[in-house]
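Data availability (excerpt). The following record was deposited with the supplementary files.
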Amino acid sequence: MKEVNYIDIAVGVLRRNHQVCLSLRQKHQSHANHWEFPGGKVEQDETAIDALKRECLEELAVETQNWQPLIEIPWQYEQVAVRLHVFITDDFSGEPVGNEGQEVKWFDIDALSGLTFPEANKGILLALKMANQYMISGKFSGVDEALDKFGQALRSGIKLCQLRAKGLSPTEFSEIAKPAIELCHQAGAKILLNGSIQLLQDFPEADGIQLASNVIYEYSGRPISHDKLLGVSTHTDKDIQQALKIGADFILLSPVKETSSHPGVPGIGWDVFSEKVKSISLPVYALGGMQPEDVQIAKQKGGQGVAAISGFWPG
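Predicted structure:
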């Protein structure tokens, strides 16, 4: 396979409360009339963060600091391949202005889906909406215990959940799913259902579906509508490519560490996780032996955060 020569681009998300700062590309530029985040090419002997500080000063007349990693996106356009090194900060001084004649505006994060961006920015928009902790439901002995544990997790700050309840009858699943969805939405959290895409017909209020790696090969394209989230569990490079093919919104990659549920199966480790993430243009969660303290490690390695059962599901 021919090696791709990527141009490194630093991209910065300036955040103020629940808003982000965007610029409108001008008529003489490629992707004219598309909104974009500030940034530019990383020059020789310059780090991505150095480039961001320089570009924000030049483009927007603001001084920035405390940039934190958000996502890294490899993308191949017809004529050029770019690698977007995306960071986020709410630590800046000055009010952004169009120093180069461009229109500059603040937008609510929830309104970004209605704007036009360069295609490579899809992963950025997803990463801004996704939490860095993804709780997968664990063991429970009945409806009351399941809902009690969901409530505990939501009160602790969990904002992204997965209802994974294998072996339940449709009636038993419904008894848990409907109130769990309501609980999550009351807490401002999102919830995905683990299982068949048909579950969205039965529970249209759910925020999406989590597909296991052994079923994704049944599809040749995206199997659900774009107004729902599609998460895909992956273990191999082949799984990852299939997840991208069917239009996943985010990916779970496992096992990063050895887990109690699969003793003796070694994890891929953080270095391999980081290397694999470099080829993925979407948010990626590390799964397998994860604990809350692993979130920052995952983000430093290029991930969105971590997914876990025992790490987040109340005991």
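Summary of structural features: Helices lie at 48-60, 122-129, 143-155, 170-186, 199-202, 237-245, 269-277, 295-300.
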